[in-house]
Specification:
alpha/beta; Rossmann fold; four-stranded parallel beta sheet; 4 strands; about 40% helix; globular
Length: about 250
């Protein structure tokens, strides 16, 4: 059975929706250094959603909805090649996606996020949609959901987790779509801070020019390998699948 909602007929959706979990991948379309595609975050979220659905075959019926391709990315605009929504626009888009799924018969919807700028907003969207639509809505960023597994797989040994267009994300894209990766910049020994699983730590500080003051990536992209990426994706897929199984229950 296909896990992609867009490939199903309305009759198939009506039959499966009441017992299924609908997953909405949420990403961004923004600069990812000089070497990675703009759609990196959505690409990873969509892959993890589909791979988790495959792992749950026969256990939980997971249907992957079309992804939200443009997220909240104003901090990347000064560097170039970035599309962004406003906060209200993204919340409205996520709410509308949930409303459509609820109207189609889904009682359980999960927003699976792949972009740091969306991290808090998906939670707000889930709270609003769940209360307004009277369905169960979950929300999570994949690297937080899979934090322990990714750390155990070495994902924070060479760069920041998740970072931005550094060793971690570059490894993921090398594993998924090596044809889309240009020569990663070489910045050996680049310092990086190990961030907590909650992403922001004890509190958040918004520095409007922090990203623009840099070069568009967080650590040394040349430390990335496709083998690392495959290991990270496997770890994240297992964690996301486990979370969706728990959510479905």
């Amino acid at each position: 059975m296909t896990a992609l909602l867009a490939e199903l007929t309305r009759a198939a959706v009506a039959r499966r929706a009441p017992d299924a979990v609908a997953v909405v991948p949420v990403g961004a379309c923004e600069q990812h250094g000089p070497h990675l595609p703009l759609g990196t975050d959505l690409m990873v979220a969509e892959h993890l959603a589909a791979a988790a659905a495959d792992r749950l075959t026969g256990v939980v019926d997971v249907l992957v909805a079309p992804g939200v391709a443009v997220g909240y990315s104003p901090h990347h605009v000064p560097i170039g090649a970035t599309l962004t929504t406003g906060v209200g626009t993204l919340l409205a888009q996520l709410r509308d996606a949930c409303a459509g799924l609820a109207a189609a018969g889904f009682g359980r919807i999960f927003l699976l996020n792949g972009h740091g700028g969306n991290a808090e907003l998906i939670v707000v969207a889930a709270r609003e949609a769940g209360q307004e639509l009277r369905v169960v809505v979950g929300a999570g960023s994949y690297w937080v959901m899979a934090w322990d597994e990714l750390v155990a797989a070495g994902a924070q040994d060479r760069g920041r987790l998740p970072g931005h267009a550094g060793a971690f994300e570059t490894s993921l894209v090398l594993a998924l779509r090596p044809d889309l990766v240009d020569a990663p910049p070489h910045r050996p020994g680049a310092p990086f801070a190990r961030n907590p699983a909650g992403y922001w730590g004890r509190y958040h500080v918004e520095r409007p020019d922090a990203m623009a003051a840099g070069d568009g990536y967080s650590d040394d992209p040349s430390a990335a390998t496709a083998d690392d990426g495959r290991r990270y994706l496997d770890a994240a897929t297992g964690a996301v699948a486990a979370a969706l199984r728990e959510f479905a229950a």
